[in-house]
Design brief:
The chain is 44% helix and 19% strand. It has 10 helices and 9 strands.
Amino acid sequence: MKGPLFYSKILLFGEYGIIKDSKGLSIPYNFYNGALKVSDTDTEVTKKSNNNLKRFADYLETIDSQLVRFDVEALRSDLAEGMYFDSSIPQGYGVGSSGALVAAIYDKYAFNKITVLENLTREKLLKLKAIFSEMESFFHGKSSGLDPLNSYLSIPILINSKDNIEATGIPSQKVDGKGAVFLLDSGVVGETAPMVSIFMENMKQEGFRSMLKDQFIKHTDACVDDFLKGDVKSLFKNTKQLSKVVLNHFKPMIPKQFHDLWKKGLETNDYYLKLCGSGGGGYILGFTENIEKAKESLKDYKLEVVYNF
């Protein structure tokens, strides 16, 4: 048995902000993927994944059956056969490893599932997001449901606000474009839950809340609009502001050894860095108007280009 592939995702804009109703833009990233499999040979990795899935199966039975019902019997029987999630998606890197797993389980075991082939109305997208949010909470404590949604549908998703999301198209890439969005490997694994709780703690301070609204969300929304319109000049102006705000107000989410690198980008304009997912490690997202310059500036690090302007 081998299930269909589900891809990783990148939240280009909106990390943390979408918790407080900023815009967001999430795109599939086909470089990494995962699928449910049954193998003849047991390894440490397959056993660990199988045990995790058994715990997940228990959790799925606690989800409100008005929202979604699963064929838990079939799931348990496949798990008894040694089913596991075979994934190349790095965990704790902000590219949606648990999202792809949630999408795969929903796809195979949900009763009356909403499929990609239907006319995806806003209601259906919101229902899927609500289901995925419940399912993914098993891994993160609190989940927006967007990662699995992106992985399941494999199309870019525009978040206008919490209850207004839509599938969207993004401008086609310029293959030989100098400008690029890239991933920078921090070399450290990030943990989502502790980062989110630091954020929630900060939200209790009025100063932080108004910074979020007047600066962080303002620039995030502008970046999303610029990206979708293909206004590259304005996009880089707003990304620079966003990068500055993150460096000043989200320091705990940036691994210490990257504080100077972050600053260097803002001073030289060779690249601008921002969080990819909740931060704390994993990937850092970079934007540059000149990828050769950025590569030169960051020659000690591993870059993966995600999108070309």
